[in-house]
Amino acid sequence: MLRLVPVFLLASLAAGNCQQPSSADRGVDLALQGHCPEAMPLLDAAMRDSANEPGVKRRVSFAGVRCSMLLDRQPDAMSFLAWLEQAYPHDPEVLFLAVHVFSDLSLRNSQELMNAAPDSPLVIQLNAENFEKQGDLGKAIAEYRILLERVPHKPGIHYRIGGLLMSQTGATVAAEARKEFAAELQVDPRSAGSEYYLGELARRVGDLPEAIRRFALATELNTSFAEAYYGLGRALLDVGKAAEAAAPLETAEKLTPDNPTVHFALATAYQRMGRKEDAAKEFALQKSTSEKLNQTTKTLHKNVSGAGSPKP
After folding, report:
1. What is the Cα–Cα distance from 70 to 198, expressed in whole angstroms?
2. In terms of domains, do 12 and 110 share one?
3. 29 and 126: one domain?
4. Which pLDDT band, with edges at 50, 70 and 90, does 298 fall under?
5. Structural domain contains residue 236
6. HSE of 275, CA atoms in CB hemisphere, 13 A
7. 240 and 210 in contact (C-beta within 8 Å)?
């Protein structure tokens, strides 16, 4: 799709010198003119040529991605994009291109899956995930339940349903979610997410010993699970065990250093332990990360809403 390379990127591709065009330049020019079958051999050769500078290969890769997508050559598109992401890891134009490439590939492969296996359980799961993305949680849950009728022991599905239930309100929602997470653990005993949510549900009803047990299990199953470490530390604080709470909160802080809530909980633990200087440091970090988060939120809101943009 032509939209994969926006106009301002095409202009940057066309920017060259007035000297005799190289094979790389000819490949890029052919790509811009839509002659992709002729352009691709030149673009491939230009990427393999060690004499070409990064700037040349950058233009070649943008053209290569464009032609690969137009020709439906997904592996080639990923190869060109992988080079760009490695050579220019934080470049806004590369990131913008990657967003469009992955979005387009997702749509193409989804359609191909539906055409190739319309009755597959994978299509049911894809439908459920699409409803989930659209925010239609009721239909998503219904599709996941249909999937479980077809594949009763498929890992991750009870967990998905439980997670969706957790975002809803109602008198029976918590009990239903608890059943789903328990069912997930029957299918996958190593589901750290299910243990975490069972801990959170226990915490909400004041069963702190059960919450602590579940959060601890979640951290054992997934040693990079920041939310579980935070949940464990917070529950230990709630039962008056500040010294025991410090270790999981310190781990949560290492995993999510920009989370103001974690800094606040750790500061509270240090304060109760009499570690005044450490507490002061964490309270300061809580304040700075909170301000940074608020500023980021305001900036995103301004960019999305267009507030503050100059009037025409």
Report:
1. 48
2. yes
3. no
4. confident
5. no
6. 14
7. no
Where does a domain end: 151, 175, 199? 175
State the Cα–Cα distance between residues 259 and 253, nearest whole angstrom: 7
CATH code at position 144: 1.25.40
- Would 139 be classed as within a structural domain? yes
One DSSP character per residue, 167-218 reads TS-STTHHHHHHHHHHHHHHH-TT-HHHHHHHHHHHHHTT-HHHHHHHHHHH
What residues contact 49, with CB distance under 8 A and at least 6 apart?
24
Give yes or no: residues 141 and 109 share one domain.
Answer: no
**Is 228 in contact with 196 (CB distance < 8 Å)?**
yes
* Cα four-point dihedral sign 212, 218, 221, 226: negative
List pLDDT tens digits, range 48-66: 999 999 999 999 999 999 9
48: nearest Cα among 58, 57, 40: 57
Residue 223 lies in a domain: no
Q: Which is nearest to 125 in space by CA: 145, 108, 152?
A: 145
Give the global pTM: 0.76
* CA nearest to 254, candidates 276, 233, 277: 233
- What 244-247 contacts at long range (C-beta under 8 Å, 24+ apart), as own/partner pairs, is 245/269, 246/270, 246/273
158 lies in some domain? yes
Q: Which pLDDT score, from 0 to 100, does residue 231 have? A: 98
CB 40, CB 76: distance < 8 Å: yes
Q: CB–CB of 215/231 below 8 Å?
A: yes
Question: 207: exposed, middle or buried (C-beta count within 10 Å: 0-12, 13-18, 19+)?
Answer: middle
DSSP state of 5: S
Question: In whole angstroms, what is the distance from residue 195 CA to residue 221 CA?
Answer: 9
CA distance 208 to 239: 7
